């Protein structure tokens, strides 16, 4: 689960991390009030969307020469004028794609006199099952470009959970950022606080870009992006309350209500599969035969008729879907349950695109019988390869 910058900074502030003063705003009037409360003389007006590259982004509704989604201004009037331009308009960045994201909230923050910019992030290293730090002197830039062009400028290390954060981790960060004296001490203190926040809140990623040194020699978190482990949200009611559903795909929100693992993609063939590995293989073979999957959808091993029905409705709600492939290998998941769900969903919402169903495993004959006797226009498949070829052919012929 992702949250906005101002929310991320509030979380970090709870653990003592040095963040600038700032106030969220949802209207131009609130932005003006926030600016007066902060006092200036320099303010930063920041669009709050779940995407990076806001400063370089452009608003669809404004002229190409208009400023981006992060603006440094020097008067209360400019704060309000920027808020009027930004709120309600669509910001397009490299991470949002051409569709962009509508800006519904802003963060009005006091300006900072920046001397140096750094990059610091924390994430879960799946290979070592440890929290890893990624640090670079190249702050304010796309870290992917730094990794590609100058990988030697990126330092990584992980923390042994048996010992937790230690003074040498702080020294490693200070050395990587070429900090000494009091700044090195600040780095060590910050690392300790960030690790405490990361582990206490079950984060999966924390990115600070940039982490800055101000003109008066203070280390400060100037931007922050946090993702939380969705499987641990039940432990954190305060984190769950930060969720902004307007930033999420409506289909993914609906899927979460039925405990379905669903991710919307850009293709035209909807997929309903049981098991993450089989779902990945299904998407791969669709691409092998020249088309793109419209989603990743794992109904899980213990799906009920109701969950299967919900899954099918979510797939058909996507206007990009021109064909559907149901691929079930019944183990814990029974083929007849899948069949009942598919039939119920089709009868409820109708079927306007080709549907290929491949069933194998537990209760497969019962499942096939349910499909056959339903009277639905369903294309049966013998195996995954056969199913992929049939759905690709059916979609192409339906064009």
Automatic annotation (TrEMBL):
<keyword id="KW-0460">Magnesium</keyword>
<comment type="similarity">
    <text>Belongs to the succinate/malate CoA ligase beta subunit family.</text>
</comment>
<feature type="binding site">
    <location>
        <position position="117"/>
    </location>
    <ligand>
        <name>ATP</name>
    </ligand>
</feature>
<comment type="pathway">
    <text>One-carbon metabolism; formaldehyde assimilation via serine pathway.</text>
</comment>
<feature type="binding site">
    <location>
        <position position="223"/>
    </location>
    <ligand>
        <name>Mg(2+)</name>
    </ligand>
</feature>
<feature type="binding site">
    <location>
        <position position="109"/>
    </location>
    <ligand>
        <name>ATP</name>
    </ligand>
</feature>
<comment type="subunit">
    <text>Heterotetramer of two alpha and two beta subunits.</text>
</comment>
<keyword id="KW-0436">Ligase</keyword>
<feature type="binding site">
    <location>
        <position position="209"/>
    </location>
    <ligand>
        <name>Mg(2+)</name>
    </ligand>
</feature>
<keyword id="KW-0067">ATP-binding</keyword>
<dbReference type="InterPro" id="IPR005809">
    <property type="entry name" value="Succ_CoA_ligase-like_bsu"/>
</dbReference>
<dbReference type="GO" id="GO:0042709">
    <property type="term" value="C:succinate-CoA ligase complex"/>
</dbReference>
<dbReference type="GO" id="GO:0000287">
    <property type="term" value="F:magnesium ion binding"/>
</dbReference>
<feature type="domain" description="ATP-grasp">
    <location>
        <begin position="9"/>
        <end position="241"/>
    </location>
</feature>
<keyword id="KW-0547">Nucleotide-binding</keyword>
<dbReference type="GO" id="GO:0006104">
    <property type="term" value="P:succinyl-CoA metabolic process"/>
</dbReference>
<feature type="binding site">
    <location>
        <position position="112"/>
    </location>
    <ligand>
        <name>ATP</name>
    </ligand>
</feature>
<dbReference type="GO" id="GO:0004775">
    <property type="term" value="F:succinate-CoA ligase (ADP-forming) activity"/>
</dbReference>
<dbReference type="InterPro" id="IPR011761">
    <property type="entry name" value="ATP-grasp"/>
</dbReference>
<feature type="binding site">
    <location>
        <position position="274"/>
    </location>
    <ligand>
        <name>substrate</name>
    </ligand>
</feature>
<feature type="binding site">
    <location>
        <position position="46"/>
    </location>
    <ligand>
        <name>ATP</name>
    </ligand>
</feature>
<protein>
    <recommendedName>
        <fullName>Succinate--CoA ligase [ADP-forming] subunit beta</fullName>
        <ecNumber>6.2.1.5</ecNumber>
    </recommendedName>
</protein>
<keyword id="KW-0479">Metal-binding</keyword>
<dbReference type="InterPro" id="IPR013815">
    <property type="entry name" value="ATP_grasp_subdomain_1"/>
</dbReference>
<dbReference type="InterPro" id="IPR016102">
    <property type="entry name" value="Succinyl-CoA_synth-like"/>
</dbReference>
<dbReference type="GO" id="GO:0005524">
    <property type="term" value="F:ATP binding"/>
</dbReference>
<dbReference type="Pfam" id="PF08442">
    <property type="entry name" value="ATP-grasp_2"/>
</dbReference>
<feature type="binding site">
    <location>
        <begin position="331"/>
        <end position="333"/>
    </location>
    <ligand>
        <name>substrate</name>
    </ligand>
</feature>
<dbReference type="GO" id="GO:0050074">
    <property type="term" value="F:malate-CoA ligase activity"/>
</dbReference>
<feature type="binding site">
    <location>
        <begin position="53"/>
        <end position="55"/>
    </location>
    <ligand>
        <name>ATP</name>
    </ligand>
</feature>
<keyword id="KW-0816">Tricarboxylic acid cycle</keyword>
<dbReference type="InterPro" id="IPR013650">
    <property type="entry name" value="ATP-grasp_succ-CoA_synth-type"/>
</dbReference>
<dbReference type="Pfam" id="PF00549">
    <property type="entry name" value="Ligase_CoA"/>
</dbReference>
<dbReference type="InterPro" id="IPR005811">
    <property type="entry name" value="SUCC_ACL_C"/>
</dbReference>
<dbReference type="GO" id="GO:0006099">
    <property type="term" value="P:tricarboxylic acid cycle"/>
</dbReference>
<dbReference type="GO" id="GO:0005829">
    <property type="term" value="C:cytosol"/>
</dbReference>
<comment type="pathway">
    <text>Carbohydrate metabolism; tricarboxylic acid cycle; succinate from succinyl-CoA (ligase route): step 1/1.</text>
</comment>
<comment type="function">
    <text>Succinyl-CoA synthetase functions in the citric acid cycle (TCA), coupling the hydrolysis of succinyl-CoA to the synthesis of either ATP or GTP and thus represents the only step of substrate-level phosphorylation in the TCA. The beta subunit provides nucleotide specificity of the enzyme and binds the substrate succinate, while the binding sites for coenzyme A and phosphate are found in the alpha subunit.</text>
</comment>
């Amino acid at each position: 689960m992702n949250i906005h910058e101002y929310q991320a900074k509030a979380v970090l502030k709870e653990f003592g991390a040095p963040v600038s003063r700032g106030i969220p705003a949802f209207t131009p009037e609130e932005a003006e009030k926030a600016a007066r409360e902060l006092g200036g003389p320099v303010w930063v007006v920041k669009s709050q969307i779940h995407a990076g590259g806001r400063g370089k982004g452009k608003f669809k509704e404004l002229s190409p020469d208009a400023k981006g989604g992060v603006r440094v201004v020097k008067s209360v009037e400019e704060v309000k004028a920027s808020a009027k331009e930004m709120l309600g308009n669509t910001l397009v960045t490299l991470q949002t794609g051409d569709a962009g994201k509508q800006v519904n909230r802003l963060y009005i923050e006091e300006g900072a006199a920046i001397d140096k910019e750094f990059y610091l992030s924390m994430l879960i290293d799946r290979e070592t099952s440890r929290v890893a730090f990624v640090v670079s002197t190249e702050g304010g830039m796309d870290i992917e470009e730094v990794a590609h062009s100058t990988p030697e400028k990126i330092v990584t290390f992980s923390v042994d959970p048996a010992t937790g954060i230690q003074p040498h981790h702080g020294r490693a960060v200070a050395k990587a950022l070429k900090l000494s004296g009091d700044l090195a001490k600040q780095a060590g203190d910050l690392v300790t606080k960030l690790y405490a926040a990361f582990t206490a809140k079950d984060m999966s990623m924390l990115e600070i870009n940039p982490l800055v040194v101000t003109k008066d020699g203070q280390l400060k978190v100037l931007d922050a992006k946090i993702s939380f482990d969705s499987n641990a949200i039940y432990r954190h009611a305060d984190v769950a309350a930060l969720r902004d559903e307007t930033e999420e795909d409506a289909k993914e929100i609906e899927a979460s209500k039925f405990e379905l693992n669903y991710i919307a993609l850009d293709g035209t063939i909807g997929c309903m599969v049981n098991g993450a590995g089989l779902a990945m293989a299904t998407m791969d073979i669709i691409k092998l035969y020249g088309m793109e999957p419209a989603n990743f959808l794992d109904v899980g091993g213990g799906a009920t008729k109701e969950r299967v029905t919900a899954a099918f409705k979510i797939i058909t709600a996507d206007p990009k879907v021109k064909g559907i492939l149901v691929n079930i290998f019944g183990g814990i998941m029974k083929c007849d349950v899948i069949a009942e769900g598919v039939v119920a969903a089709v009868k409820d919402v109708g079927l306007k695109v080709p549907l290929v169903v491949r069933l194998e495993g537990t209760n497969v004959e019962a499942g096939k019988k349910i499909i056959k006797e339903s009277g639905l226009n369903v294309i049966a498949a013998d195996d995954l390869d056969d199913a992929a070829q049939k759905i690709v052919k059916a979609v192409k012929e339906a064009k």
